[in-house]
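Rotation project, supervised by the postdoc (A.L.). Task for the rotation student: set up a whole-complex structure prediction and record inputs and outputs verbatim in this book. Inputs entered:
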Amino acid sequence: MEKITAANVDTYQSELNALIVKIRTEADEKQKKKDLTRIDLLQRKISAFRTGSKVSRSTKRDLVAYSFIAPNFIGFAIFTLIPIVFAFLLAFMTWDGSNPIEWAGLSNFKKLASDTHFIAALKNTIIYCVGTVPLTMIMSLALAIVLNQKVIGRGIFRTLSFFPYVASLVAITSVWKMLFHPSKGPINNILLNVFGVAQDNLPQWFSGGLVMVSMILFSVWKYMGYYMVIYLAGLQGISGELYEAASLDGANTWQKFLYVTWPQLASTTFFVIVMLTINCFKVYDVAIMLAGGGKGELTLNSTVLVYYIYEKAFVEWKLGYSSAIAMVLFALVLIVTIIQFRGQKKYAE
Amino acid sequence: MKKKLVSMLMVAAMMATMVAGCGDSADGGDDSAAADNTTGDAAPAATETAPADDAAGAEAVTLKWAIWDQETTTYWQALADAYMVANPGVTIEMVDLGSADYMTVLATELSGEGSDFDVVTIKDVPGYATLVQKNAILPLDDYIAADGVDLTQYAGTTDQVTVDGKLYELPFRNDFWVLFYNKDIFDAAGVDYPTNDMTWEEYDALAREVTDTTFGSQVYGAHYHTWRSTIGLMGVLDGQHTILDGDYSFMKEYYDMVLAEEADGVCRSYSDLTTEGLHYSAAFTSGDTAMMNMGSWFISTMINNLASGEYDSSLCGNWGIVKYPHAEGVEAGSTLGTITGLAVTAASDTPDEAWDFVKWVSGTEGAQVMADTGNFPAIMTDEVMSTITGLEGFPTDDNSKAALEVSNLYLEVPYAENVSEINSILDTYHAMIMNGECTVDEGIESMNTEIGAILGQ
Amino acid sequence: MKSAHKKAIFSKVIIYVILIIIALAMIVPFLWMLSASIKSDREVFQMNPFVWIPENPKWSNYSEIWTKIPFGKFIQNTVFLTIVVTCLQLLTSSFAAYAFGKLKFKYKNALFMAYLSTIAMPWQVYMVPQFIMMRKMGLNDKLLAIICLQAFSAFGVFMMKQFYEGIPDELCEAARIDGMSEYRIYANIMLPLSKPALSTLTIFTFVTTWNDYLGPLIYLKSQEKKTIQLGLKMFIGQYSSDYGLIMAGSVISLIPVLIVFLILQRYFVEGVASTGLKG
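Outputs recorded:
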């Protein structure tokens, strides 16, 4: 490590001053970043010399950052993180919420492998996610772009798009079930009368193999307004100058989207995809409302992970086993998030 | 972790010796009860003995009681008021946990230590099993023995919820299944009314006879609500089979019967019903349903809503009930039942007072309050019976009155260790069979393998 | 030139047609709610033929919900909870997110992963340990319990962090070079810029807290502490239900949500772009 002396502090200071002047006019993004790092380093070295300690500067920096995080983190750690860590440990134990906890090792996870209901729930949840995540993302982005333009009644249209998300679930499932009712719904009536599908072959939208399709379409409808709001907020972050520059280069609408909008929305898209994935993996009430039987029971064709977690936890009170299922869900979300994270970084570079 | 386990076991062991040590001073002085205590339920027993000594002082006691639907259910307040009049020193504080997720909220509340509930209502047997296994409620046997409560008046239901020789709840409400029918529809079709002694074949034939599939003026001979109980449990009425058997082939003929009815338009299709979310009351009161199997709770609903004009009396005002149909060679009046019970929590500081309340509500005084509000108490005396049949709006024909006489009562869900898990598996395959997602044989086969594996553990 | 003009008009028309179709699809559930709210329970689920306006509209549903349950009290509780939770959430999340988005510090990634991973955990899994812990703290049956649960969610931090990352670093760097403290950078530069994100977070937190059912169900037991969603469930009894009343209550409870959305949605256009980033 080079020794900081009074002599080279002066050279640092002059280099720093030069950089500060330079950076204001710097056009190249990469060079700018380099300069910024350099400025940071120089400032640190100078202040380290002046205050006589190198550690104090970085510690101070950390402390400032922690002071920002603390108000949220303290509440979060006490009320959420600690119980979650406890739930993590529960996956390796047997507990019914009252009697003494017993160590179970990996037996909960071993049981999962041969559990028909768990495997069905896992399969359905993955199918649901694979269908819902991209569709919702595309639809909400398209809607956000349209509603970000100068359209008459824009505020009204935005509010309307948000309706299915806030309207009561009973109301929207009722409307959906009315449309897709196996014998009385207009969709099946069109299939019957216009396309000549035989009465017995009319699709059963809420049972059997089609129930997942129904759930996916329903979810896109219900949630696209929600993610549209996030995209709308993200779109405001894009500078109009970028579009002007693109227009000057003769870019058409599609090219503008491809080279300006899409890259600029990278961090919003990351957020949207991660949240969508998490929320899709946590799907529960939509399944019960659309496909639940007399007491809300789901069949092997419609069961999903959180439904099964709920069953195990609050009907059978096998909290250890339900934690183990949650671990699988958690691992899946983690994998998707890490892939996304890597992808976003690569894209940014 | 192991350390923690050992220490927990030690605490349990210490409690057990404590109980054994002070067994003589225990309430009721029953030494053998204390000795019988395994380490599992030692903890509740220990808390039970402590306050017994100072309960002599007649200070004001407040009992916290977990209930549901306080606004819409008539009897909670009536029971609490009547008890408080009879016992001036006691205040009953009701806490409404809602009916939809009642057992979930209650079991969460009683998790760990430190709940302040004294008396809890037990809504269903799976929930009861949960609380028993969590050691959250007290065994009542010592109290029952000490106060000489006669269990035979509960028509055998208490035997079906006894756990390893111990009873943890006393029923105060008992609903059983009957067959509701619409007399106008039978009159219009010129078909005889159903009777109090019908086999399932006779019932099926009758349903088909009264059915009209003409478009625009359909009449459904039968209606089955989407619960598993309406079909899957027809087979347990012979007393030979229960849902804990591990072999469910006895359900096949009933699934076959209903699916055939569905195919022939005799009843509404299951998938239509779940899609519409049609409530059974709406199905029966719309005037196109001839017969419907349902619990006796629907009797007071019918009476009240016809009186208030909520139900159109020109469509369903002329109704009656008969006994549940039964299998060949089984006594008429064998039916399904559901009990609602009361239990004393292990966390209660005043278990003796809590028990007194439980005993009162489940006893004859409570039964009369229940009957006065139009509900079926667990104790069916002649007096109670005449109160109910004498209600304004109760069908006036003799068959309807006789339909309330029950010969054998089988709980929809009797107690078993894994009853919750068995229940969910049966529910899943019931829905699959009824949706046509698998055949009856496949569904029953899956029930057999999966539940067999649980029972074989 | 003329054909280009025609083309523009044509595409405008197409856009409006699509928008109107989407708007119709979006508003149908709300119309259904309105229609169901003036029906009796028996009429609500009758689909064949579906009647939008019942023969005898049951307007009394709108007056009955106030008398059958203490709906006013429930609204009061819900408003209190929602406002407190939303304010706390906005303040603490945007504060923490600034550190995650714009500062460098030790254990940053580890801390952030701690946040992110908790979002993936379904609440059902840690509800019981959490409940036992909260009861030990004396929070059972207290409104404060819901505030503690909702106000420090990881979602807010994650969302705000992603948004801050979208704001170019140069703005902060320039301020830092000018000798501004981090707190002033947050207050004077970042906060004004993050109006779209803040209004988004406000809407989401507002809706989540307003419509929360499971949290209040587990924690709020006495009648005078219950919320709207618990109140609406009271109309679904063990053996009976009244969906007409539920829908009347839902329509009323939807109004504040829509007002908040309508007010805040205009801030979506007053973000970075309009304040002039490069200036």
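Student's summary: DSSP finds 21 helices and nine strands in chain B.
Supervisor addendum: Chain B touches chain C at residues 68-73, 95-101, 105, 108-109, 111-112, 114-115, 123, 276-279, 281-282, 285-286, 297-298, 301, 310-311 (CB under 8 Å).
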